[in-house]
Here is the input.
Amino acid sequence: MTWLSRKSRAARPKNQRVAPAQAAATKKRGKVKKFNILKPLRDSLSGEWLGTWNKRGHLPFFAFLALLFVAYISLVYRYESNERAKRDATRELLDLSNTHKSLLSEFETQLQRSKLDDEMADVGLVQPASPPQILIEQ
Here is the structure.
């Protein structure tokens, strides 16, 4: 029985008969095969295929799923280890950058001091070795 004939039967009253031409047309069409896309999915989710005799036929699929699972775990582990290494390298780069800046400032201070000493020597001044003393007037 097709969907159309079910619909037409539900729409008409029970005591009314179908015209013979219409009845012959529905018999000629015969049964229409339904193509259900969700049937394999529904069968897989129900677990009905586990009870059949062909359990070994599904082993390659289970092996494939296990391989995907292991590959996923290894990729996640590799990603996390790369992220940790990147974070550590960024930290080390920041430390080295700070060290470089401090050394540059120290060298700049020494350079300024040596330039000052050279200019003082050109003028004839000498940097005293002892700290300055306060002179008291008498």
About this structure: The helical segments are 3-11, 20-29, 39-46, 59-123. The two ends are 134 Å apart (CA to CA). The mean pLDDT is 79.
